[in-house]
Specification:
mainly alpha, globular
Length: about 270
């Protein structure tokens, strides 16, 4: 089983050039035909951040969190969540939306979720730069800790890869998966400390919030830009995260591999 999984990953690596071509094509087609074109990829997340900032900063006059302006604290949680949400919602439908490619014997269908993931990553990289710009606008210079955002970005990509292989494969046979993922993202947004602090929860219940692997990513971005804490200072939780991620990645790859031969029959 492990050998099949490794061969699966090796085949994907050999197809990396095609994956990049498809990613660029998907990124362009996704917004083709609208007047603002690619700008829509950045307008919607920016508008969401602006609305939440206005509601909590201006409306509720939220106090600084961890001695940092609320707006900076907010974007460090919102921006990685946008990437998570966009990747899961689009990649789940990647196989179904490209049924004409599924029926081509020579085409490696497992690339389709990866293409959607990388397409969302292109937008995410832009918004990571936005974080740096916001900090500079507030007169706060990013320190060396900010470089570990590369680590957390890699960590969430690996987790998402396993999830989208799993959901996109199941979506072919069970159309309700798309609705389940959308509902999961709704609950995930409110249950993950994105616009509220973990300190609001009694200490005895915080461990349950931390079982959510996406908490590791959100907190990691804030550790990189705000708290100035290296990821190896949380060894137990890091091991837990990578244990969950490895299990999800393996499960996603195996489910996709097992169900792949039946895609064409169902579609």
């Amino acid at each position: 089983m492990l050998k099949a999984f490794l061969n699966f990953l090796i085949d994907l690596y050999r197809s990396r050039a095609l994956i990049m071509q498809l990613t660029i094509r998907d990124f362009k087609i996704r917004y083709l035909g609208s007047y603002l074109g690619l700008l829509w990829a950045f307008i919607q997340p920016a508008a969401t951040i602006l609305i939440l900032w206005f509601v909590f900063q201006v409306g509720f006059k939220s106090a600084p969190v961890d001695n940092f302006p609320f707006s900076l604290w907010l974007i460090c949680g919102m921006i990685p969540w946008f990437f998570i949400s966009d990747s899961l919602s689009t990649a789940t439908h990647s196989v179904v939306d490209n049924s004409y490619l599924v029926k081509k014997v020579v085409f490696r269908v497992s690339m389709l979720p990866i293409v959607k993931l990388l397409s969302a990553l292109m937008i995410h990289l832009f918004f990571v730069l936005v974080i740096f710009v916001f900090f500079l606008a507030y007169g706060i210079h990013s320190e060396l800790y900010a470089l570990q955002v590369v680590y957390y970005g890699f960590a969430v990509i690996v987790l998402l890869l396993g999830l989208v292989w799993l959901t996109s494969a199941l979506m072919v046979f069970l159309k309700d998966v798309g609705q389940i993922v959308a509902m999961f993202l709704q609950f995930g947004f409110w249950l993950t400390p994105i616009f509220w602090s973990l300190d609001f929860i009694p200490v005895k219940y915080q461990v349950y919030i931390k079982l959510n692997p996406f908490f590791y990513i959100i907190q990691g971005y804030r550790d990189s830009f705000i708290n100035h804490v290296w990821f190896w200072h949380h060894p137990v939780y890091s091991l837990y995260y990578w244990g969950v991620t490895a299990a999800v990645l393996l499960a996603g790859a195996l489910v996709f591999t097992r169900l792949r031969p039946h895609f064409a029959d169902v579609m």
